[in-house]
């Protein structure tokens, strides 16, 4: 009984790590643009497709496919960033909603047109189970955990100490003041956007071997799982996002075990409602900033 | 004066113009009624069931091509129109409306998903267009058809009731399973198959230890599989989606369930691709299917060969049933002596159609009497254990 709970918590942490890497990008983009990126799951999908293409068509190894997946997403993100995201600085909130929803449709359907709507089979990765502390986990899941921690530690340091991170925080606080003191706001927006999209793509490539199937609509589900996480974590808050993702991952895992798999997708928004009743500004914000 | 003149000129030119438009138009309509049979296909071309849709489309296309190449149905060519249901009832209904209102089809084949077919039934009924289902297995579809209500719905596919019974019987009697866990898709298909399994399991002294349903697109089954592993179940009853089967099978290996817990039910356990994705988890799996490529009959073998050479991929169950259903419809049109909807419907009720799995006739609920083929995966290959037909006991009206 006890070991079952521990095992489920480990499962939850693995799921939470995937959510965390996707969500942190979305929350940083919100920070600088004040817009929820509804196309975020699509970059997750693009990364996975890039890697699948590298493995299946180019015959590359899984390690190389990670680089192909992330790089191809960065190229797409650069184009979208230049053409769309940079124009959203100072635009009203509904412009952001419409633009990102539109991008989501375009990206998703382009992939369906090019590769077809069917499920693809992702054959790379380390799927052999390893036994750790008495639990059997696919090697790939351990890789996800191992990648997640340094990514977050690195992001935390970047946001706190680097010039780029400082300017990101500055832009998220006051765009006009940034312009006055000479911070190149469009550049910060573009960089943040590309970083966020690349992280989503990385998360997609890392999960592809255990999720097996790759298809055009796979990003939607991720976008909707990520939304409650970034709200819970406090929009724009890196550390909060990490904790919120873990809470959601573990809660989902426990619900799937003790309540029923069919209730799993309700967990995100149910947790969000409970948490908002307790702390309406997010887990880590002391007050509303926006 | 100039005004009246120009008005007269306008009248005359309008008259000439409208004549010019209507005359070829009339000819065109007359030609269409004579020359072609308009057949609509509703299937999930995108979304989580897109694989089914692609196979359905190719199966139907192949049959249409074969029939047209052989001179059509009594000289009339079949024209195939397709519409995407995305596997959801809402899109399925609008796809059906589009086919009926814009493409003006006389016959509709569709959908794969039971939930979608159930939603399409009233649309076809209102329009008086024949809805011939080829791949949905929820019993409710024909409970409500024929004498049950919907006069225009026919189904050329065996139902879950038959399937659930056959699987439960085989698992209990031949394999000696008594403890089962349920892991099915959360849809009209997955849930109704389990409902009927529950109806028959007590006859075989089987008990269900846990019951879970997954949403389409679910990818993480570790939690639920760990629960099943700890519950001591001998088999997982799974009425699932083909695309999810490899994910579950792989995670079964990850959690050490492979070789200990057997998959039984339906969800394309028998295709080469699925078996290759997780051979140890699928060894011994039991499945009941309407058809499979290994089915031993000359017509069926010829179909597999033709499909494989045309599309460079072996057909699945959905490709076969759509191919077969187009041929069934062609025979009904032939027996009706043309594509008059009412006459084709009457012909279908009386038809004796020779399909590769046996002779097909329809009961008074417009349900085809068809066998379920039972197979088991042995040494990485499906092995056929028999075909079972059961007459459906309809609930009293």
Automatic annotation (TrEMBL), chain A:
Keyword Phosphoprotein: no
Gene Ontology terms describing biological process: amino acid transport
Membrane topology qualifier: Multi-pass membrane protein
Annotated Gene Ontology cellular component terms: plasma membrane
Gene Ontology molecular function: any one: transmembrane transporter activity
Domain of life: Bacteria
Location of the protein in the cell: Cell membrane
Cell membrane listed as a keyword: yes
Keywords: Amino-acid transport, Cell membrane, Membrane, Plasmid, Transmembrane, Transmembrane helix, Transport
CDD domains recorded: TM_PBP1_LivH_like
Major localization class: membrane
InterPro entries the record matches: ABC_transp_permease, BCAA_transport_permease
Family recorded in the similarity comment: Belongs to the binding-protein-dependent transport system permease family. LivHM subfamily.
Name by which UniProt lists this protein: High-affinity branched-chain amino acid transport system permease protein LivH
UniProt source species: Sinorhizobium americanum
UniProtKB/TrEMBL annotation, chain B:
GO terms for biological process, alphabetical: amino acid transport
Leucine-binding protein domain residues: 36-380
Coiled coil start-end: none
Keywords in alphabetical order: Amino-acid transport, Plasmid, Signal, Transport
Superkingdom classification of source: Bacteria
CDD domains: PBP1_ABC_HAAT-like (cd19988)
InterPro entries assigned to the protein according to its UniProt record, in alphabetical order: BCAA_transport, Leu-bd, Leu_Ile_Val-bd, Peripla_BP_I, TAT_signal
Family indicated by similarity: Belongs to the leucine-binding protein family.
Name recorded for this polypeptide: Branched-chain amino acid ABC transporter, amino acid-binding protein
Organism: Sinorhizobium americanum
High-level lineage: Bacteria, Pseudomonadati, Pseudomonadota, Alphaproteobacteria, Hyphomicrobiales
